[in-house]
Specification:
Number of domains: 2
Order of helices and strands: EHEHEHEHEHHHHHHHHHHHH
CATH architecture of the largest domain: Orthogonal Bundle
CATH superfamily of the largest domain: Hypothetical protein af1432
Oligomer: single chain
Mean pLDDT: 82
Number of strands: 5
Strand content: 5-15%
Structural class: alpha/beta
Shape: rod-shaped
Distance between the termini: 83 Å
Strand order of the largest sheet: 2-1-3-4-5
Length: 408
């Protein structure tokens, strides 16, 4: 019996001929088995419902349920039991058919006792091996599941380590350019608000958040003499400054899980009309995250203080964004921006300012970890600073309301 190596193997003999059942009972008892009998298939199923049997020997032809019908039921309800079909010599083909349907073997009448015992032992041994194989398979599945969980935890730890490393890089850049404090936090939240309206998936939200947050990471390679220059940049200096998009891409794209975000970093200075840089992409050639970022960047740049002017009101930024729809900005993104109430943008600015003024850098990072709704879970993002006023990206480069032309 299963689970007790010292117990006798229980065998159920199913045959409507008392002489056959008596012969098989005597033979199996003398070989150390514990046999029981049933005269019909229905009676056999009753026995099986009450106790376990290691093997079943069933006649093919019986009143009511046939041996093949009984085999089908046992395969469904008691698959661990070895099943042997007993048949007359004229029924060999049916015996072979029974094996095709799951019987371990077939026994020819009249029986040869030793052949019956040998066949029964072999069938039970095969069933035991099948159980061992199934247990091994399940053990492997559990092991794979456990290893998968461990790998996922390791991946998350590695991802967190990457984020912490990038946070350190962003912090270094933040120290170099403190005039745009909070910019990356705000544009990330702005992007997420609009991306949600545009129907972005949770994975897209995650990548948009990372790309927006790290958009200016390449500026860490720009010399202070250019990055912090108060006056207008020369053509040569402008070319060096514009290289930050490619530098940032090269830095971040080497990290596998940040590869989609790297595309946003590379294209965050592109324009919908194709007049941006570094590739001159236009329309939907530009990733959705970068098209969303363009609007978010302009909103934040115009409503934030700059060395050359004070912050402009939201209405001025809104007007500029509407004017540039189809030129600098994707009209669909502008439509999403316009659908969001002004107090949402104001609330984000207030929240980011409060966190940063409180010196809670860890909590400030959480601003970028939170998607606009509770169903979206944005992964941790490192704080990166540095901003380029979007108005200077327009080749028509208008002066702002202060009359002072902005700089890169």
């Amino acid at each position: 019996m299963v689970g007790d190596p010292n117990a006798k193997l229980r065998i159920l003999i199913v045959d409507d001929d008392p002489g056959i059942t008596r012969l098989l009972c005597d033979t199996l008892s003398s070989e150390g088995f514990e046999p029981e009998t049933a005269s019909t298939g229905e009676e056999a199923l009753e026995h099986l419902s009450r106790q376990h049997f290691d093997g079943i020997i069933s006649d093919l032809h019986m009143p009511g349920m046939s041996g093949l019908d009984l085999l089908a039921k046992i395969r469904e309800l008691h698959p661990a039991a070895a099943f042997l079909m007993a048949t007359g010599e004229a029924d060999v083909r049916i015996g072979i058919e029974a094996m095709r349907h799951g019987a371990a073997d077939y026994l020819l009448k009249p029986f040869h006792p030793q052949a019956v015992v040998a066949s029964l032992r072999r069938a039970i041994r095969i069933k035991a091996m099948e159980r061992e194989l199934e247990d091994y398979r399940r053990g492997l599945e559990r092991m794979v599941e456990e290893r998968t969980r461990q790998l996922e935890k390791a991946r998350q730890r590695i991802e967190m380590t990457y984020d912490e490393t990038l946070e350190a890089l962003g912090g270094a850049l933040d120290l170099r350019d403190s005039e745009t404090s909070g910019h990356s936090y705000r544009v990330t939240r702005y992007c997420l608000e609009m991306a949600r309206v545009l129907g972005a998936t949770p994975d897209q939200l995650k990548q948009i958040a990372r790309g927006a947050f790290l958009h200016d990471i390449g500026k860490i390679a720009i010399p202070d003499s250019i990055l912090l220059k108060q006056g207008k940049l020369t053509a040569e200096e402008r070319a060096i400054m514009e290289a930050h998009a490619r530098i940032g891409y090269n830095l971040v794209s080497r990290i596998a899980f940040l590869a989609p975000a790297a595309e946003i970093i590379l294209t965050h200075q592109e324009r919908y009309d194709g007049l941006g840089y570094p590739q001159g992409l236009g329309g939907e050639e530009i990733p959705l995250g970068a098209r969303t970022f363009a609007v978010a960047d302009t909103l934040d740049a115009m409503t934030s203080n700059r060395p050359y002017r004070r912050a402009l009101p939201y209405a001025a930024a809104r007007e500029e964004i509407v004017r540039e729809a189809g030129h600098q900005f994707d009209p669909k993104v502008v439509e999403a921006f316009l659908s969001i109430p002004e107090d949402v943008w104001a609330g984000i600015r207030t929240e980011v300012a409060a966190l940063r003024l409180g010196g809670q850098s860890g909590q400030a990072a959480k601003v970028t970890r939170r998607a606009p709704d509770a169903d979206s879970n944005i992964a941790g993002l490192p704080p990166v600073k540095a901003d380029c006023d979007p108005e200077t990206l327009d080749p028509r480069a208008r002066a702002d309301s202060t009359g002072t032309k902005p700089q890169v």
